Amino acid sequence: SFGETVAVDGSTAVVGAPDDREPNGERAGSAYVFERRDGVWTQARKLAAGDGDSEDGFGSSVAVDGSTAVVGAPDDEGPDNSSLGSVYVFERRDRVWTQAQKLTPEESSGVDEFGFSVTVDGSRAVVSAFGDGIPIGNLAGAAYVFERRDGSWVQTRMLTPADGDGEDAFGFSVGTSGSTTLVGAFGDEDPNGPSAGSTYVFEAPATPSDAATSTPGSTTDRPADEETDDEDSEGSGAGLGIGSAVAGVAGAGYLLKRRVSGRTDG
Questions:
Q1: CATH at residue 27
Q2: What is the pLDDT of residue 252?
């Protein structure tokens, strides 16, 4: 499954292989870091979870920004052997990649699939948990914001939709850039019918919170394309660029642009 997930930033690429059995067992998973030097891409490191085990699915999601790589293991078992999930942060220092921290949610409903999708930008990382049932219902989903403070990553916010419902799979995809975060809800049926899907836009507060808080309904926008129909599943992918965003739909992609002072960026 090498290449099932990929991420690139500048001269660094990370490639996920969630079915890899080395070194932690059947489908424990791994991720490979490649770096471009003198115009040639070469493997710099193979990443694996320090406490990895079989069936973790490490490498099911990957993200990289500068000298920070984030790798999801959504099937990592929780205390009750459910797929709670986890995320591993790796940092490059003196050209060597090492595991810096393991992230898990402060709350869990059991089969969260935490780490199904990950994104990182600077000192902020967003981790999806589309199976999370807190506080709305089974498979309603959530996304967790982590920020790096004094060298450690801490959970600062839990994102949920104001109009969320069970089976929405909010958090199926995530993307973040600067103060803006997009979260896809693959199974949302409002307003265009069953599994039409939607994408939610969140803006980070100007003043960071010192404690982890839940932010249901803090969406600043909820773009839903007028042309989507049943089973289109908008929110199956999300990406961000300067002043614009892309929301994925099975079979299509929609470019969303931010309007500033009455004009459209880009």
A1: 2.40.10
A2: 45
Are residues 124 and 93 both part of a single domain? no
CATH at residue 177: 2.130.10.130
Structure confidence at residue 234 (pLDDT): 43
The number of distinct structural domains making up the chain is 2
Identify whether residues 114 and 57 lie together within a single domain.
no
Please indicate, yes or no, whether residues 61 and 35 belong to a single structural domain of this protein. yes
* Per-position DSSP letters for the chain, written without gaps between them: -TTSEEEEETTEEEEEETT--TTTSTT-BEEEEEEEETTEEEEEEEE--TT--TT--BTSEEEEETTEEEEEETT---TTSS--BEEEEEEEETTEEEEEEEE--SS--S---BTSSEEEETTEEEEEETT--SSS-TT-BEEEEEEEETTEEEEEEEEE-TT--TT--EEEEEEEETTEEEEEETT--TTTSTT-BEEEEEE--SS--SS-EEEET-EEE----TT--TT--BTSEEEEETTEEEEEETTEEEEEE-EETTEE--
Q: Which pLDDT value is given to residue 140? A: 86
**What is the predicted pLDDT for the residue at 241?**
42
> The tokens of 35 are what?
């770096």
pLDDT of residue 233: 44
pTM of the predicted protein model: 0.81
Same domain for 149 and 227, yes or no, is yes
Residue 24's domain comprises 1-76+85-103
Distance, CA of 203 to chain centre: 16
pLDDT along the chain (266 residues), means of 10: 96 98 95 98 98 96 98 88 89 97 85 92 96 76 95 95 83 92 85 72 68 47 46 48 45 48 36
Same-domain check for residues 198 and 256: yes
